[in-house]
Amino acid sequence: MTQSKNAEQAARDDAHLRSLGIKPELQRTLGFLSNFAVAFSYISVSTGTYTLFAVGLGVGGPAFFWAWPIVIVGQLFVALNFAELASHFPVAGSIYQWSKRLSHRTLGWFTGWIYFWAGVLTTTAVAITVPLVLSSIMGIDLASPDPTGLTTMSIFLTLVVLVSTTLINAFGVRLLSLINNIGVGAEILAMLVFALVLLIFFRNQPFDVLFQTAGTEASTGGAFSPVFLVAMFMALFVVYGFDTAGTFGEETLDAGRQAPRGVLSAILLSGVIGAIFLLGIILSFKDMGAAIAESQAFGLPIGTTILENMGDFGRVYLLAILALAFDPAPPAILCIEEIDRGIHPRLLRHAQPVTEFGTPELKALLEDMFDTMKAASLLQKVCHQDAAVINPYDVLRMATVGGAKALGLSRETGTLEAGKWADL
Which of 1, 43, 47, 176 has most Cβ atoms within 10 angstroms of its Cβ? Predict the structure, then answer.
């Protein structure tokens, strides 16, 4: 009965995609929880707070804590807009597709490239924090040679993370969602339990420390507002990426409802868990002045206070969080799609044909147009047993002017002239 209902819902979702001019090509295997988990893991409160906590504390002192709820409320307004767009356009590409459909393809093209490079930079930035965390926990010398002798341990560990997560993404959305769901569930539980343990058993600071600036306003002549605004970047650099729930719309059942719920649930739960975790960490510092000094020296005060308060158990916890939180996030991979969609980042899984796991193979990402033109010419000559049946000029015209006309895009491309797209 459930399978029948899912099949009916998938048919309705695919019909909606066709109404948007998109051919359904991805398998709908994700439910609400999996959709939410992907967005939550992209936000990644644990990794973000661990690596960026020093920015907030070092710049604004313990009072920077209040920047977190302010940013959450502000980003919630953004998420409400994204949720509305995801309900109307639950398609892979999310921000690219939304900007293109609400404005113009030109804006979509620029948005797509910006989105692509943002994905490249943020995925790499998250991966490069792994060796930093391992260094603070296990004392690894990141400048030392790696096992291959080709580079340093820092670069080697970063590459291991990037390669492993990319392979998991390419292998299949079902494997990705399974790993992601387990990691997110354990991460949520671990962060909440750990924060409560710190608050109950290892609280070394009074609650009124949350209203103290620890003299950080001295850098601006006594004005705390500019310092607080800079400290807010700690939260801003963590709370983003919730549009990922919309990106997986084509792989989610009942995407028009579940993708918006995934967007909003991810940011709301991230806000609650992040606030409790930050509260537990700030109040656990034995020496607030030393923690601020470590932050200003680009240290990792969260790791320090956990090890000081909890010893080896804290070390095990940090390693567990590292393994759970750095689960595979969906990378933005550049591929070339049909001419209507232009060139923009899209999930690697879009390419055809699909494997037994519902994941497309890599070989179909790009087709050489000149080889296609050559094959078309030779096939016609063989079919008609006539070497002169079609000449190179006709082949070129078919691939440019004729192709644009067949797609209904004669006014936009097909020929090289002012006001039209360059036809590559």
Answer: 176
